Prior knowledge:
Layout: E1 10-12, H1 17-30, E2 34-37, E3 54-57, E4 64-68, E5 73-77, H2 82-90, E6 94-95, H3 108-114, H4 121-124, H5 127-130, E7 131-138, E8 143-145, E9 170-178, E10 180-181, E11 185-192, H6 196-208, E12 215-221, H7 225-231, E13 240-247, H8 249-265, E14 269-270, H9 273-281, H10 285-292, H11 294-297, E15 302-304, E16 307-317, H12 323-336, E17 340-347, E18 352-359, H13 367-384, H14 403-407, H15 410-421
Parallel strand pairs: 1-3, 2-3
Antiparallel strand pairs: 4-5, 5-9, 6-10, 7-8, 7-9, 11-13, 11-14, 12-13, 12-17, 15-16, 16-18, 17-18
Residues 35-43, 46-47, 58, 78, 100-102, 105-107, 109-111, 113-114, 116-118, 166-167, 171-172, 286-287, 290, 392-393, 428, 431 line the site of flavin-adenine dinucleotide.
Amino acid sequence: MNALAQRPLAVVRPGSTAEIVRLVALAQQQRVPLVPYGGGSGLMGGALSVRPGIVVDMKRMDRVLEVDAQALTVRVQSGVRLRPLGEKLAEQDLLLGHDPWSISIATVGGAIGTNGLGYLGGRYGAMSAQVLGLEVVLGTGEVLRTPPLRKRSTGPDLTRLFIGAEGTLGIVTEATLQVFPQPQQRTLIGFTFPDFPSGFQALLEMQRRGVQPTSMDLAADTWPVDLQDRRDLPASQPPLLKLVFDGLTHEVEAQSTEARRIAHASGARDLASAELEEYWTTRHAIADRWAQNPELREGKWLETPYGKSQFDFLHMAIPAARLLDFRPRVFTCLQSHTVSLCEEGVWIWPECYALVLYCRQTRDNDAAQSMRLATDEIYQIVQDIGGSIEYVHGVGVRLGHLMQRELGNSLAVLRSLKTSVDPDGIMNPGKLGLGMKAGD
Length: 440
Ligand SMILES: Cc1cc2nc3c(=O)[nH]c(=O)nc-3n(C[C@H](O)[C@H](O)[C@H](O)COP(=O)(O)OP(=O)(O)OC[C@H]3O[C@@H](n4cnc5c(N)ncnc54)[C@H](O)[C@@H]3O)c2cc1C
């Protein structure tokens, strides 16, 4: 269990917006924190209780309220899980545009709370692009409803305020999402590149030429040998690029032909179609295993006689023009802290850069401390070059200490907005770097 976690006073499972309104009134009266909880798959501790409070488990509010196949929208209660929602839409030949690894566990409310990104994001956008309107119970107990329209010009769009807010401003009870027609064609293509920079440059060239994959995944495995032996992990191999194109048949053919031409001009070789099929059909498997295995949920990855060796996953937004200069700075930093690189990659857009890191616990090395120092140093470099420390998982408790540096005076603006919709500070205190209030 996370060292910051506190045992909640209670877990409630509301069945309606009206019940949540009553719960907020009670929490205000007693100055007790409320922690919204969807599927509990968030990786930053956003749904963790860090003050004894009430966990608001949205499990019972999982109804699909209305599918409008003409307007291409769906209205849902926020506790609905993404996989059953996607299956329900598919019955009407519609597509849910959000397809994260964790599709079987995550809920619509959790994806909104973290502003998640999924495999189909290149064409259909991140979660923020798919939410049209919301119903939210604020920390004042008021119910706010934003109009579920694609476009209006009557003041700032308050819907966006609650996306990525991690439940710190209110509890999302309903959402209207944009949905999409099932694509006429879906094509997968893939390549190996001689090295990471040539794969990355090919992606930039595709972008310049108007190639817009539905899904893009450039990844290089460099797992340390001691881990390959112990954990059945892949040996180091040249970077692989997988691209998926969705749409009308002609469109998909034109896009994939141009992508192939650019990749081959950069020295790439084609991947076998069986490998691509396997990649796509097993894309949710890691998260399914995570959901079923309490050991993974607790993050117990690798015990050694000296303690726990450490893994970490960094998902940073880096200005594309800076990425190839940024990488060597990262590698120098990792080396100085004896942290190993296991995987690097970009996902969906060239700006979204991820690292998997490992630090071995030995008699002389405090792995947790080395990992913390290395990752905080990397995050500082990211901020210095105009990037963002996280592009997909949110802030939670994990990155709160870096939010002042990340947002500058915007953090004060965010705090005053919070005060106006949550004057008693009962909504998920201790998250997003907004500080604690209720229960202090
Ligand atoms: C193996 C693995 C793979 C993953 N892959 C991806 C991925 O590909 N893409 C991705 O985006 N994420 C991914 N995640 C992270 C996680 O699945 C997402 O952040 C997901 O959107 C969280 O949804 P949840 O319902 O589990 O939310 P929770 O973990 O329950 O909550 C997340 C945050 O949202 C808040 N919240 C939950 N419900 C509400 C509500 N109704 N109103 C207001 N706030 C609320 C919580 O308080 C918390 O701050 C992955 C996680 C794992 C374990």
